[in-house]
Amino acid sequence: MSEVEVSVEAEVNRRLSRIIMQAVGQASMCWEDVGGAGVFDSQGAVVVGESLLFDIQQVIADLLG
């Protein structure tokens, strides 16, 4: 893989990660009574986001591979 390809891949991963983590954070507020929803597990949300990012990366790799 060339330096340009590695750089592009890193930028895609950075952008996807940001978008995914923002969406997970936004979804955490989708309660009828946010105040009564309990304590938000931010580390659990990170795990969900990272798992989703990994799955998306696998789909991209399969399609481009």
Structure in words:
- The chain is mainly alpha-helical and 65 residues long.
- It has one domain (3-28, 39-64).
- Helices cover 74% and strands 0% of the residues.
- The chain has two helices and no strands.
- The protein has helices at residues 3-27, 42-64.
- Helix 1 crosses helix 2 (42-64).
- The longest helix has 25 residues, at 3-27.
- The radius of gyration is 15 Å and the shape is elongated.
- The two termini are 12 Å apart.
List the helices and strands and how they pair.
Layout: H1 3-27, H2 42-64
Summarize the structure.
The protein is mainly alpha-helical and 65 residues long.
How many helix segments?
2
Separation, N- and C-terminal Cα atoms: 12 Å
What level of helicity do the residues show?
Answer: over 70%
Radius of gyration: 15 Å
| Biggest sheet architecture | none
- Which structural class is indicated by helix and strand composition? mainly alpha
Report the β-strand fraction as a percent range: under 5%
Helices and strands, in order, run as HH
Question: How many structural domains does the protein architecture include?
Answer: 1
Shape: elongated
Q: Round the mean pLDDT to the nearest integer and report it.
A: 91
pLDDT under 50 segments (min length 5)?
Answer: none
DSSP, total strands? 0
